[in-house]
Amino acid sequence: MDEPVLTYPVVKIQYEELDSFPLKYDEPFVLAVHWNGVPFEFLIRLRQTQHLIVLGSGAMEKPEPLPYFQRHSWMNEFEDSVIYYNDPTLYLADLPVGWGQGTIDRFYLEDIATLLDKLIAKANISRDHVLFYGSSAGGFMGLMLAGYLRGSTALVNSPQTSLTKWLDVPVRNVFRVSYPGYTFRQASVLHGERINVMKFYKKIKYVPKIYYLQNAACELDMSDHLIPFLSELAFMEPGSTVNPVIVDLYYDPQPGPASFPRIGGHGAVGKLETIDYIRRVRP
Fold it and tell me: CA geometry: angle at 98 spanning 69 and 133, to 5°?
Protein backbone atom coordinates (compact mmCIF):
# COMPACT_ATOMS: atom_id res chain seq x y z
CA MET A 1 0.00 0.00 0.00
CA ASP A 2 1.29 3.46 -0.89
CA GLU A 3 2.03 5.74 2.03
CA PRO A 4 0.21 9.07 2.37
CA VAL A 5 1.80 12.14 0.87
CA LEU A 6 3.93 14.13 3.27
CA THR A 7 1.87 16.93 4.78
CA TYR A 8 3.98 17.78 7.82
CA PRO A 9 5.01 21.38 8.50
CA VAL A 10 8.55 22.18 7.41
CA VAL A 11 11.04 24.20 9.42
CA LYS A 12 14.16 25.38 7.55
CA ILE A 13 17.28 26.45 9.41
CA GLN A 14 20.99 26.85 8.78
CA TYR A 15 23.47 24.53 10.46
CA GLU A 16 24.69 27.39 12.64
CA GLU A 17 21.18 27.78 14.08
CA LEU A 18 20.80 24.16 15.17
CA ASP A 19 22.23 24.57 18.66
CA SER A 20 19.77 27.35 19.53
CA PHE A 21 16.78 25.89 17.67
CA PRO A 22 13.97 25.01 20.13
CA LEU A 23 12.69 21.48 19.60
CA LYS A 24 8.96 20.90 19.34
CA TYR A 25 7.25 18.00 21.07
CA ASP A 26 4.23 15.81 20.26
CA GLU A 27 3.48 17.22 16.80
CA PRO A 28 5.52 15.84 13.88
CA PHE A 29 7.45 18.23 11.65
CA VAL A 30 10.19 18.16 9.02
CA LEU A 31 13.42 19.87 10.01
CA ALA A 32 15.54 20.90 7.02
CA VAL A 33 19.08 21.79 8.08
CA HIS A 34 21.06 23.51 5.33
CA TRP A 35 24.76 22.83 5.85
CA ASN A 36 27.28 24.18 3.34
CA GLY A 37 24.82 23.99 0.47
CA VAL A 38 23.34 20.57 1.27
CA PRO A 39 19.82 20.08 2.70
CA PHE A 40 19.67 17.47 5.45
CA GLU A 41 16.05 16.68 6.23
CA PHE A 42 14.58 14.90 9.23
CA LEU A 43 10.98 13.97 10.00
CA ILE A 44 10.73 14.33 13.77
CA ARG A 45 8.09 13.37 16.31
CA LEU A 46 9.40 13.83 19.84
CA ARG A 47 7.73 12.69 23.03
CA GLN A 48 8.74 13.08 26.65
CA THR A 49 10.46 9.71 26.79
CA GLN A 50 14.03 8.54 27.25
CA HIS A 51 14.00 6.39 24.10
CA LEU A 52 14.46 7.24 20.42
CA ILE A 53 13.94 5.19 17.26
CA VAL A 54 15.79 6.45 14.16
CA LEU A 55 14.57 5.07 10.83
CA GLY A 56 16.31 5.05 7.46
CA SER A 57 14.98 4.27 4.01
CA GLY A 58 15.69 1.52 1.55
CA ALA A 59 15.45 1.89 -2.22
CA MET A 60 12.36 3.50 -3.71
CA GLU A 61 10.32 0.99 -5.70
CA LYS A 62 8.98 3.84 -7.86
CA PRO A 63 9.86 7.54 -8.08
CA GLU A 64 8.81 9.38 -4.94
CA PRO A 65 8.93 13.10 -4.10
CA LEU A 66 11.88 14.10 -1.94
CA PRO A 67 12.57 14.09 0.93
CA TYR A 68 11.90 10.36 1.14
CA PHE A 69 10.96 8.96 4.54
CA GLN A 70 10.10 5.28 4.07
CA ARG A 71 7.55 3.95 6.56
CA HIS A 72 6.65 7.43 7.84
CA SER A 73 3.04 6.30 8.18
CA TRP A 74 4.21 3.99 10.99
CA MET A 75 5.14 6.94 13.18
CA ASN A 76 2.17 6.79 15.54
CA GLU A 77 2.67 3.08 16.15
CA PHE A 78 5.53 3.96 18.49
CA GLU A 79 5.26 5.34 22.01
CA ASP A 80 8.86 6.57 21.83
CA SER A 81 10.34 9.55 20.03
CA VAL A 82 11.07 8.91 16.35
CA ILE A 83 13.31 10.54 13.76
CA TYR A 84 13.39 9.64 10.07
CA TYR A 85 16.30 10.89 7.96
CA ASN A 86 16.45 11.55 4.23
CA ASP A 87 19.57 10.75 2.21
CA PRO A 88 20.66 13.92 0.34
CA THR A 89 22.55 11.74 -2.14
CA LEU A 90 19.16 11.35 -3.85
CA TYR A 91 19.29 15.02 -4.83
CA LEU A 92 22.49 14.54 -6.83
CA ALA A 93 20.83 12.56 -9.64
CA ASP A 94 17.75 10.52 -10.51
CA LEU A 95 18.53 7.72 -8.06
CA PRO A 96 16.23 5.32 -6.19
CA VAL A 97 18.87 4.76 -3.51
CA GLY A 98 22.12 6.42 -2.44
CA TRP A 99 23.43 4.61 0.66
CA GLY A 100 24.42 8.03 2.08
CA GLN A 101 27.51 8.14 -0.15
CA GLY A 102 27.39 11.88 -0.91
CA THR A 103 30.40 13.22 -2.81
CA ILE A 104 34.13 12.53 -2.94
CA ASP A 105 34.75 15.40 -0.53
CA ARG A 106 31.78 14.81 1.74
CA PHE A 107 30.41 11.59 3.16
CA TYR A 108 26.75 12.40 3.80
CA LEU A 109 26.29 9.56 6.29
CA GLU A 110 28.94 11.08 8.53
CA ASP A 111 27.17 14.44 8.31
CA ILE A 112 23.83 12.80 9.11
CA ALA A 113 25.46 11.20 12.16
CA THR A 114 26.76 14.59 13.32
CA LEU A 115 23.33 16.19 12.99
CA LEU A 116 21.54 13.30 14.68
CA ASP A 117 23.99 13.44 17.55
CA LYS A 118 23.17 17.13 18.06
CA LEU A 119 19.41 16.45 17.92
CA ILE A 120 19.71 13.55 20.36
CA ALA A 121 21.65 15.70 22.81
CA LYS A 122 19.12 18.54 22.49
CA ALA A 123 16.33 16.09 23.31
CA ASN A 124 18.26 14.94 26.41
CA ILE A 125 18.27 11.33 25.22
CA SER A 126 21.24 9.11 25.97
CA ARG A 127 22.86 7.33 23.04
CA ASP A 128 22.33 4.14 25.06
CA HIS A 129 18.60 4.56 24.43
CA VAL A 130 18.83 5.10 20.66
CA LEU A 131 17.86 2.38 18.17
CA PHE A 132 18.67 2.66 14.46
CA TYR A 133 16.30 0.65 12.25
CA GLY A 134 16.47 0.03 8.52
CA SER A 135 16.18 -2.70 5.91
CA SER A 136 18.30 -3.25 2.81
CA ALA A 137 20.01 0.11 2.07
CA GLY A 138 18.43 1.52 5.23
CA GLY A 139 20.04 -1.35 7.11
CA PHE A 140 23.45 -0.51 5.65
CA MET A 141 23.05 3.09 6.79
CA GLY A 142 21.81 2.01 10.22
CA LEU A 143 24.89 -0.16 10.74
CA MET A 144 27.13 2.75 9.84
CA LEU A 145 25.29 5.32 11.94
CA ALA A 146 25.35 3.09 15.01
CA GLY A 147 29.13 2.94 14.56
CA TYR A 148 29.40 6.71 14.54
CA LEU A 149 27.11 7.14 17.57
CA ARG A 150 28.81 4.86 20.07
CA GLY A 151 26.47 3.38 22.62
CA SER A 152 23.49 3.16 20.26
CA THR A 153 22.01 -0.08 18.88
CA ALA A 154 21.24 -1.16 15.30
CA LEU A 155 18.31 -3.35 14.24
CA VAL A 156 18.69 -4.25 10.58
CA ASN A 157 16.73 -6.49 8.24
CA SER A 158 18.53 -7.91 5.19
CA PRO A 159 21.10 -5.09 5.01
CA GLN A 160 23.88 -4.67 2.52
CA THR A 161 27.18 -4.97 4.37
CA SER A 162 29.38 -4.34 1.30
CA LEU A 163 28.09 -2.31 -1.62
CA THR A 164 30.48 -3.98 -4.05
CA LYS A 165 28.63 -7.25 -3.39
CA TRP A 166 25.19 -5.82 -4.17
CA LEU A 167 23.30 -5.42 -7.45
CA ASP A 168 25.68 -4.03 -10.04
CA VAL A 169 23.48 -1.42 -11.75
CA PRO A 170 22.23 0.61 -8.76
CA VAL A 171 25.66 0.56 -7.10
CA ARG A 172 27.49 1.68 -10.24
CA ASN A 173 24.90 4.44 -10.76
CA VAL A 174 25.63 5.79 -7.28
CA PHE A 175 29.39 5.47 -7.72
CA ARG A 176 29.22 7.44 -10.98
CA VAL A 177 27.53 10.27 -9.09
CA SER A 178 29.46 10.12 -5.82
CA TYR A 179 32.90 9.19 -7.20
CA PRO A 180 33.12 10.65 -10.73
CA GLY A 181 36.37 9.93 -12.52
CA TYR A 182 37.07 6.89 -10.39
CA THR A 183 36.79 3.35 -11.68
CA PHE A 184 34.61 0.99 -9.69
CA ARG A 185 37.73 -0.64 -8.24
CA GLN A 186 39.38 2.70 -7.39
CA ALA A 187 36.31 3.90 -5.53
CA SER A 188 36.10 0.60 -3.66
CA VAL A 189 39.75 0.79 -2.56
CA LEU A 190 40.07 4.51 -1.82
CA HIS A 191 36.72 4.82 -0.04
CA GLY A 192 36.38 1.33 1.41
CA GLU A 193 35.33 2.61 4.84
CA ARG A 194 32.28 4.24 3.23
CA ILE A 195 31.36 1.20 1.20
CA ASN A 196 32.05 -1.81 3.44
CA VAL A 197 30.65 -1.88 6.98
CA MET A 198 33.39 -4.09 8.42
CA LYS A 199 36.13 -1.89 6.94
CA PHE A 200 34.50 1.03 8.74
CA TYR A 201 34.30 -0.88 12.02
CA LYS A 202 37.94 -1.92 11.72
CA LYS A 203 38.96 1.68 11.11
CA ILE A 204 37.14 2.95 14.21
CA LYS A 205 37.94 -0.23 16.21
CA TYR A 206 34.36 -0.53 17.30
CA VAL A 207 31.34 -2.74 16.58
CA PRO A 208 27.97 -1.54 17.94
CA LYS A 209 25.33 -3.78 19.43
CA ILE A 210 23.49 -5.26 16.45
CA TYR A 211 20.31 -7.24 15.94
CA TYR A 212 20.65 -8.70 12.45
CA LEU A 213 17.36 -10.03 11.07
CA GLN A 214 17.80 -12.11 7.92
CA ASN A 215 15.74 -14.34 5.65
CA ALA A 216 17.89 -17.47 5.26
CA ALA A 217 16.10 -18.19 1.99
CA CYS A 218 17.78 -15.20 0.27
CA GLU A 219 20.95 -16.64 -1.25
CA LEU A 220 22.53 -13.28 -2.12
CA ASP A 221 22.01 -11.80 1.34
CA MET A 222 23.35 -14.89 3.07
CA SER A 223 26.41 -15.67 0.95
CA ASP A 224 27.55 -12.13 0.04
CA HIS A 225 26.53 -10.06 3.06
CA LEU A 226 25.72 -11.87 6.32
CA ILE A 227 28.35 -14.61 6.22
CA PRO A 228 31.28 -12.37 5.14
CA PHE A 229 30.23 -9.79 7.74
CA LEU A 230 30.30 -12.34 10.55
CA SER A 231 33.55 -13.88 9.31
CA GLU A 232 35.32 -10.51 9.40
CA LEU A 233 34.45 -10.01 13.07
CA ALA A 234 37.24 -12.46 13.86
CA PHE A 235 39.77 -10.02 12.42
CA MET A 236 39.03 -6.97 14.54
CA GLU A 237 42.26 -5.61 15.98
CA PRO A 238 43.15 -6.35 19.61
CA GLY A 239 41.82 -3.59 21.82
CA SER A 240 38.74 -3.04 19.66
CA THR A 241 35.35 -2.81 21.33
CA VAL A 242 33.06 -5.51 19.93
CA ASN A 243 29.51 -5.51 21.25
CA PRO A 244 27.12 -8.45 20.84
CA VAL A 245 25.92 -9.20 17.30
CA ILE A 246 22.69 -11.17 17.52
CA VAL A 247 21.59 -12.90 14.31
CA ASP A 248 17.93 -13.88 14.00
CA LEU A 249 17.28 -16.09 10.98
CA TYR A 250 13.87 -16.85 9.54
CA TYR A 251 12.99 -18.86 6.46
CA ASP A 252 10.52 -17.50 3.92
CA PRO A 253 11.13 -18.77 0.36
CA GLN A 254 10.14 -16.20 -2.24
CA PRO A 255 10.83 -16.28 -5.97
CA GLY A 256 13.29 -13.73 -7.26
CA PRO A 257 13.19 -12.26 -10.76
CA ALA A 258 14.03 -14.69 -13.52
CA SER A 259 17.09 -12.60 -14.40
CA PHE A 260 18.46 -12.78 -10.85
CA PRO A 261 16.85 -15.50 -8.72
CA ARG A 262 19.48 -15.17 -5.94
CA ILE A 263 17.69 -12.07 -4.64
CA GLY A 264 14.45 -13.93 -3.88
CA GLY A 265 13.39 -13.32 -0.28
CA HIS A 266 15.34 -10.07 0.15
CA GLY A 267 12.35 -8.00 1.33
CA ALA A 268 11.89 -7.12 4.99
CA VAL A 269 9.36 -8.81 7.26
CA GLY A 270 5.94 -7.18 7.44
CA LYS A 271 4.86 -4.09 9.33
CA LEU A 272 3.43 -5.79 12.41
CA GLU A 273 6.43 -8.11 12.81
CA THR A 274 8.86 -5.22 12.36
CA ILE A 275 7.10 -3.00 14.89
CA ASP A 276 6.96 -5.86 17.39
CA TYR A 277 10.64 -6.52 16.89
CA ILE A 278 11.53 -2.85 17.37
CA ARG A 279 9.54 -2.75 20.60
CA ARG A 280 11.24 -5.87 21.91
CA VAL A 281 14.86 -4.94 21.20
CA ARG A 282 14.93 -1.19 21.62
CA PRO A 283 17.36 -0.34 24.42
Answer: 45
